[in-house]
Amino acid sequence: MNVWFSAAAAGASLVMISIAIPLLLRRVPPNALYGLRVPATFADEWVWYEANARSGRDLLALGAVLMALTIAICVLQLGIVA
Q1: Handedness of CA 14, 20, 24, 30 (dihedral sign)
Q2: Alpha-carbon distance 4 to 21, whole Å?
Q3: Is the pTM of this model over 0.85?
Q4: Neighbouring C-alpha atoms within 13 Å toward the C-beta of 53
Q5: CA-CA distance, 32 to 39, in Å (whole number)?
Q6: Which member of 5, 6, 24, 64 lies 3.0 to 4.6 Å from 56 by CB, making a disulfide possible if both were Cys?
Q7: 26-70 tens-digit pLDDT
């Protein structure tokens, strides 16, 4: 795997994780720029926080899986674990 591709994948996973944490902790109030923005979430504040906490959990898991796969591919490519 190309070094630049590995760095981009690791960077993307860190961005996903850093975006997910405030959503997961319910720190993002209803707004038009950041979070799960659908009519149902704008209609009720409780729904906003619940939906964003769940989407933050999923985004955190996706970022962690991407990071793990990036590390695993780099390690396997270097021949450290065969």
Answers
A1: positive
A2: 26
A3: yes
A4: 9
A5: 11
A6: 24
A7: 999 999 999 999 999 999 999 999 999 999 999 999 999 999 999
